[in-house]
Amino acid sequence: MVIPGSSAAAELPPDDLPGLAPEWSRLVTVADGVTWHVLDTAPVDPERTILCVHGNPTWSYLWRDLLAAAPTDVRVVAVDQLEMGFSERTGRRRRLADRIDDLSALTAALGIEGRVVTVGHDWGGPVSVGWAVQHVAQLEGIVLMNTAVDQPEPTPGATLLRLAQAAPLRRLLCQRTPWFVRGATALSRPRPAAAVRRGYESPYLAAHRRKGIADFVADIPFRSDHPTAATLAEIAAFIPQLADVPALLVWGGKDPIFNDVYLRDLQRRFPAAVTHRLAGAGHLVPEDADVAGVVLRWMEELPDRRTRPVDEGHGIPASAHSATGQRRRVWLALQERAEDEDLAIAEIADGEVRRASFAELERRVTEVAAGLLSHGVCPGDRVALLVEPGIDLAAALHAVWRVGGVAVFVDAGLGGRGISSALASAAPRFLIGGVKALAAATAMRWPGERISVTELAAPLRRTLRSAASLTGLRDADVGPLPLPAPDDIAAVAFTSGATGPAKGVRYKHRQVEAQRDALMQLYGIQPSDRLVAAFAPFALYGPLMGIASIVPDMDITAPATLTATKLAEAVSAIDATLVFASPAALRNVVATAGEVTLDQRAALHRVRLVLSAGAPVDRSLLRSVRRVLPAARIHTPYGMTEVLPVADVSLEELEQLEAGRGVCVGRPVDGVDLAIAPLDAPGTGGVELVTDPDVTGEVCVRAEHMRDGYDQLWATELAASSPPGWHRTGDVGHLDAHGRLWIEGRLAHVVTTAAGPVTPVPIEQTINAQDEVMRSAVVGVGPSGAQVVAVVVEPAMPVRVSGLADLDLADAIRGETEVDVAAVLVVPELPVDIRHNSKIDRIALASWASEVCAGLRSAAP
After folding, report:
1. What are phi and psi of 491, to 5 degrees?
2. Rounded to 5 degrees, what are φ and ψ at 316?
3. Beta partners for 77?
4. Are 822 and 808 contacting, i.e. CB atoms less than 8 angstroms apart?
């Protein structure tokens, strides 16, 4: 039925829409006489076609970046569905089945043959999959973005759409007013420019042109008796027959409509799909992020996806020290000491020491593992561990591993929003935590069935929605445990987020075991050693290594809360021989060293080894640490969440070195290969790897204890794994003639001047040596390739006001640097990361410095 006044001819869009090339637009009339508007790159003899289908209430404008970026041998066709965009308004109500048939008629009219990759967003997803089902023979791949082929469970977004289906409200929101159209761009993160918003609204300026939007909403099958429910069910039922078709899921993590519930449903239906989840992107993910780059890079991988070699070597032979054979499993260190009443782990809180022997810890792990299994934790299930470092965390972690679960580690230092983003990405099935963690989980709707560390009173249990406790789970008897295999995933650990959104890093069991062995070999760790773990990532290494360990009385997420007295108390409590602490923690230990008693000082003098990592450590700090712990060898292992250790250097070796270009982090440890990807003119690491001395570039690592990959970040993992088998660290540095690695900064912080790339750390070292400077940051101001150097200083003498430095300080700094410094600015305190309290946020400083230099801002960053 055609409603009078609701029909209109197809037309071309305005010529002045940002990013839209007028030559792409075509009007195509199909066999039934209906005319479509499409965007079509129309190359000569394309090798393949990308068929893009928009949802509601967008149009083909959504795909303009993909059309612009496509190579010349790829045809991109982005359609305006009938009744939508600038296609014909026929006045008919079109249901999903109609839209699939419509699209098939259009592709026939366009002569689309050969290999096709379908791309669908929103309710264009089911349309594109429906087309794929009918054209399997020519289907090369499927790309889906923030869409669904089912309603897996009630969600807030689905509830809003269900309400919008009510006829009076639907007509008001979707047709009579432009609210629904404008609401779509309001879901974008960040909000698009006004000209882009105008572009999205341009086909829908009149009410009669918005009827298709209302009909699209009405066609969402929330009920089983809805006319479209059967069509959607048929599509979903056919998906298993597409198992051999490569699939890519690109997802905006901040979408309130098609949230992660729908992502997990699609991952279940497309088990072989790769996922690239963009934590900061909203519903209009192609508008919010470089989706075009991800899709095209994925398509480059399609021809050789199944035959791509794991490690091409890239001309650099593997380390002669690489380990071979099966390693000791992660649980053996505890099992072998199951009858040992010696101390395994201790923790200090409010002056009270809590202890567990190896026998007690092993018993508890076994009981909790059985309880988790009886509670429904299955091999492969993800379990978020939001537990304070200590006995409970050690027991929970090893119990999760004993049942084949995957431990998810999220640093509390990420803050509420950061934790929410990380957990949404990791999607744990269970979440174990204390009262504070469970309260946060309730308030912020973190995923995972909640398990309390301790038994809770019934009212609190109901409030926190905690189904069980570790204490209550310990009485189960389920027989043999399903121990994991070496290649099973053991953990997902999130990075600190110091240089961007925190990324989930996957580790297999064999990689965790290799990391343990690398550390024990490097530092000669023996069963008689005892560890003070004042650094969150190392709080679990004691049970892994089979040595006693303790967590000091400190806020592990705020390293600077560790004092010399608290360190001495921890050392005394277990007669520790090893200390691992971040630079920020050690700096405060040095500052408070005068507060320790004679007995505590004697305990500190018995420590044989101090390790500090997580951020660059200057020699002056290490010298000060040696005065507090004079018998200890002091080492700074270099590494990152993705691979640790990579290199190591001792204070003794540093003392023998002359000042160099950057921070020396030592020689690669046994089993690690290091290479450099030289910087090119735009300041990025090239493809070729070299080991020549004094070549500055991105540091690349290869090791058995390297990460398995990034979790739900396919494109990030691919970029960081080039060449295959290597990890591109994002750090910039060089090797010297003796094979030592010197770090010069982060790749993201390289200043790209007209004269070439400039790395920040060597300049900062020179500036920081001046008496007037506490610390500094070198940042780039201006467009990439033509940036100028700006220096932001935290003066030794505190300042209250941020802005341009006085002339004396500016002249002193310019006189000590070998590069042209365009501006010198001061701030009361440089912004640093939460986890380490050491990594300077140069990206925030660069943005602030740019605004100050432009006269737009003076307040602190």
Report:
1. -155, 155
2. -110, 115
3. 40, 51
4. no
Beta-carbon count within 10 A of 684 CB: 14
Q: Which residues on adjacent β-strands are paired with residue 489?
A: 508
Pairing of strands 663-668, 406-409: unpaired
Given the structure tokens 């079509």, which residue do they identify?
Answer: 40
- Tell me which H or E stretch contains 119: strand 115-121
CB 698 within 8 A of CB 643: no
Residue 512 has pLDDT above 60, yes or no: yes
Q: How far apart are the C-alpha atoms of 52 and 810, rounded to whole Å?
A: 54
Q: Which amino acid appears at position 71 of this protein?
A: P
Distances in Å between the Cα of 737 and the Cα atoms of 153, 652, 691 are 61, 19, 10
SS (H, E, C) 349-396: ECCEEEEEEHHHHHHHHHHHHHHHHHHCCCCCCEEEEECCCCHHHHHH
Distance, C-alpha 46 to centroid of its chain: 35
Render pLDDT for 278-324 as a digit per residue (tens, 0 to 9). 999 999 999 999 999 999 999 999 864 433 444 455 667 776 545 55
Q: Distances from the Cα of 507 to the Cαs of 278, 503, 514, 524, 537, in angstroms?
A: 21, 13, 11, 24, 14
Q: What is the predicted pLDDT for the residue at 853?
A: 85
d(CA 813, CA 403): 58
pLDDT for res 156:
66
CA 530, 534, 538, 544 dihedral sign is: positive
- Residue 431 near residue 446 (C-beta atoms within 8 A): yes
Rounded CA gap, 148 and 121, in Å? 9
Task: Give yes or no for a contact between 659 and 768, defined as CB atoms under 8 angstroms apart.
Answer: no
Its pTM stands at: 0.90
8-state DSSP, 475: G
User: How many angstroms separate the CA atoms of 198 and 838, rounded?
Assistant: 44
Instruction: Return the number of other C-beta atoms located less than 10 Å from residue 808's C-beta.
Output: 9
Match 């967008």 to its residue by tokens: 58
Spatial separation of the C-alpha atoms in residues 749 and 738, rounded to whole Å: 27
Structure tokens at 850: 């740019």
How does strand 803-804 pair with strand 821-826? Answer: antiparallel
Q: Which amino acid is at 132?
A: A
Amino acid at position 384, single letter:
A
d(CA 15, CA 741): 54
What is the arrangement of strands in the sheet containing 48-53, beginning at the earlier edge strand? 25-29, 35-40, 74-79, 48-53, 115-121, 139-145, 247-252, 274-278
| CB-neighbour burial class of residue 2 (10 A; exposed 0-12, middle 13-18, buried 19+) | exposed
Res 793 pLDDT > 70: yes
Length of the chain in terms of residues written: 861
Cα 714 from Cα 301, distance rounded (Å): 12
469's CB contacts (< 8 A; 6+ apart) are 451, 452, 453, 454, 455, 456
What pLDDT is stored for residue 555 in this prediction?
86
Radius of gyration of the CA atoms of the chain, in A: 30
Classify the C-alpha dihedral 848-850-852-857 as positive or negative.
Answer: negative
- Contact in structure between 298 and 715 (CB atoms under 8 Å): yes
pLDDT of residue 269: 95
Q: CA 456 to CA 460: how far, in whole Å?
A: 6
**H helical segments located in 202-241:** 211-218, 229-238
* pLDDT at residue 411, as a whole number: 84
Q: Estimate to the nearest angstrom the gap between the alpha carbon of 764 and the chain centroid.
A: 28
3-state helix, strand, coil in the chain (%, to 5): 35, 25, 40
SS3 505: strand
Kindly report which listed range (54-68, 212-226, 420-434, 469-483) carries the lowest average pLDDT score.
Answer: 469-483
